[in-house]
Design goal:
The protein is of the alpha/beta class and 500 residues long. It is built from 16 helices and twelve strands. The chain folds into two domains: 210 residues, 3-Layer(aba) Sandwich (Rossmann fold), CATH 3.40.50.300; 204 residues, no CATH class.
């Protein structure tokens, strides 16, 4: 979301935690409150080498800087700090050093500079704050609010720094009464309180959290605003990159052909002929699957996921049952939509005939093309039992050389739409995956598709382009429009598809 993995580095800087020209925020909280998970999701890092998300108490033992970099320039930094370990005792020690009244920033400086070996975690986490960093305080609102948490809030309040409290919620452990108690106390000690789920937050929630920093940090308002603009621009660029990946994948997949020679002696032996066809079909689906895996891998790289993996079943397409009601209701176009789209694609092909004859056909070519396309879609689109290929074709070679069989693509007008839906479903799963999670997960071609809910114009444009790709001659003239429609399509994901 924010910077490439190479730009995200960890540094330990002495007396320079918060440079005057860079908005800086220390991420503070008790151990296992989710500090590292929040950072991982916010900065899109699912690599434990950069940010370790661990249930082990005290995993973060020193301050670690994570920079947000655009075009080689640091725009924002977050500082992961050790968790509080003795907040009540530390609070009392600070009060004792200060004497009567409320401790101020100078007392905290003396507390951090003391030579004793006690309160090491508290002293380390206070260093960036004393250097000018704002505070992002992470709490788990499902935990009971105890005195040690109140002591943490009090110490942080004494710093006088801009303070944002973040309720790191978990959908499976919500407790409204306890959360309300947290909100009441946080409201008295912090400038702003927000909710965030580090294991579920998607791009809009991450962007909202960044915008919340604008509300508490006045000194760097312009710099933060510019950083948020860069984040939004980068997200738009990623969507366009993804559309380019889909465009290349679909063109290559729809133009995929495989060939094999059937020797003359095999032509008269049905068992050998059928075996050759079977091997050719297996090769076709394997190559098709490899194309999809390459496209999915590229999408995963665009969105910086390393713990998401692809479903490795090479027979994924061969087992699709396009005649089954469930498949029709989930992926690809409905038969009526498919008929209209095919008619338009056929009309486009017929129109080419009219142009080639200088208009002498008076539109007959367009009409015949539309009728032929619609009829094929109506009868073939809903009757093929699966994605079997028509192997009856082939090229006769010279006498004694046999016959060359060519296979691909499947003779089903819904095939391109099923391919597109399969990738869109995976794209949605990629967007929904939070980087704060550390469990490995497989992408599966499951769930409802998106193509049935496309606006009519989008279906028309794609249908024409699909038709040209299937013929092996992609229409470059409408390719820019196809790209724009794919970008608009991706902009609507992960909104729930509504094929009704």
């Amino acid at each position: 979301m924010i910077a490439t993995p190479g730009d995200l580095v960890k540094l330990r800087v002495v007396n320079n935690w918060a440079p005057a020209d860079i908005p800086s925020f220390a991420v503070v909280g008790r151990v296992n409150m989710g500090k590292s998970a929040v950072l991982s999701t916010l900065l899109e890092i699912d690599d434990n080498e950069l940010i370790r998300v661990s249930p082990t108490p005290g995993e973060t033992t020193r301050c670690q800087i994570h920079r947000v970099v655009f075009s080689g320039r640091e725009c924002l930094r977050f500082i992961d700090t050790p968790g509080f370990s003795q907040p009540i005792e530390a609070m009392r020690a600070i009060q004792h050093m200060h004497g009567v009244g409320t401790p101020m920033i100078e007392t905290l400086r003396r507390f951090v500079a003391r030579r004793e070996t006690d309160f090491e975690d508290e002293r380390r986490l206070l260093e960036p704050l004393l250097d000018g960093a704002g505070i992002l305080y992470i709490v788990d609102p499902a935990r009971p609010l105890r005195d040690d948490f109140l002591a943490e809030m009090e110490i942080l309040r004494w710093t006088g720094r801009p303070r944002l409290a973040l309720l790191n919620r978990h959908a499976d452990s919500e407790n409204p009464e306890v959360e309300e108690a947290w909100r009441s106390q946080l409201g008295a000690a912090f400038n702003l309180t927000r909710s965030f789920d580090a294991h579920q937050a998607r791009y809009p929630e991450r962007l909202k959290l960044l915008r919340s920093l604008l509300e508490i940090e006045e000194r760097h308002h312009a710099a933060l605003k510019e950083t948020i603009r860069l984040v939004e621009d980068e997200w738009t660029q990623r969507r366009e990159q993804s559309a380019e990946i889909l465009l290349e994948y679909l063109e290559t997949a729809l133009g995929l052909r495989v060939a094999s020679t059937l020797e003359e002696k095999d032509l008269t032996l049905p068992s050998r002929r059928e075996r050759k066809k079977q091997l050719l079909a297996e090769r076709y689906f394997r190559e098709l699957r490899e194309l999809e895996q390459r496209g999915t891998k590229q999408l995963l790289a665009v969105y910086r996921h390393h713990l998401l993996h692809q479903d490795s079943d090479p027979s994924g397409y061969a087992g699709l049952d396009l005649a089954h009601e469930e498949t029709w209701s989930k992926w690809g176009l409905r038969r009526g939509q498919l008929t209209t789209a095919a008619a338009l694609a056929g009309a486009a092909a017929g129109f080419g005939v009219d142009l080639a004859t200088g208009g002498l056909t008076h539109g007959v070519g367009t009409a015949i093309g539309a009728l032929t396309g619609a009829t094929a879609a109506w009868f073939k689109g809903g009757t093929l039992p699966d994605l079997r290929l028509d192997l009856s074709g082939g090229i006769n070679l010279k006498p004694g050389e046999g016959r060359e069989l060519r296979l691909g693509p499947p003779n089903n007008p819904n095939f391109p739409w099923v391919l597109l839906d399969a990738m869109l479903v995976r794209y949605s799963q990629i967007l929904e995956r939070a980087h704060g999670r550390r469990d490995a997960q497989h992408l599966h071609a499951e769930g409802p598709g998106y193509t049935q809910s496309f606006p009519r114009h989008r279906r028309e444009v794609l249908a024409k382009w699909f038709g040209s790709c299937l013929k092996g001659s992609p229409n470059r003239g409408i390719e820019p429009e196809v790209f724009e429609e794919l970008v608009r399509c991706l902009a609507g994901i992960p909104a729930n598809p509504d094929p009704a």
